[in-house]
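pinned: reference chain
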Amino acid sequence: MTENEFVSLLTLQHIPHLGDGSIKKLIQHFGSATAVLQQKKEHLLKIEGIGEHKLQSFWDEKYAAFAKAELEHIKTYNITYSCYTDDDYPQRLKHCIDGPVILFQRGNIQLNQRKIISIVGTRKITSYGTTFVEKFIEEIAPFNPVIVSGFAYGVDITAHKAALANNLQTIDCVAHLLLIPKNAEQSRQARVYRG
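pinned: its structure tokens
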């Protein structure tokens, strides 16, 4: 994927009300993220599920500027990524219509080759819940699974710590943008879209 196409894909991800399923549908129809961003409104409205509401901020240039800043952040912090069309994109997610268009990662993560178990739950975990999660992970440790959590307080962070205590790989999925927009309104819109 060219850098220009990647920036176009990042731009689409920042546009409020345009989710992953809609982005995939648009790319499939027009051939690339760059081509999608070059379309006139009347062409976009012909695509099923793409209405006026989703296109309210479509041509706002701040999303392209933010995508370029995000690309610099990716380069600076050596963040790797895979697009839903790439071979290394997780096979299990390829079957999800609304699976993420891009996955960002740091570290050695092999999502296609290992046993994976996701552990998420309440942020207000009880002492019983803490004991249960820790014991559960200790008991499944011999199977060497990858423990995936949302890295939130409570069950998620307990699972993460228990995985580390049992020498298991752990993956923390953070459901937000790589960069937080400086503009509060843009930040609010980004959270609505990605949060």
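why pinned: The chain has two domains: 3-108+183-194, 116-168. DSSP finds nine helices and five strands in the chain.
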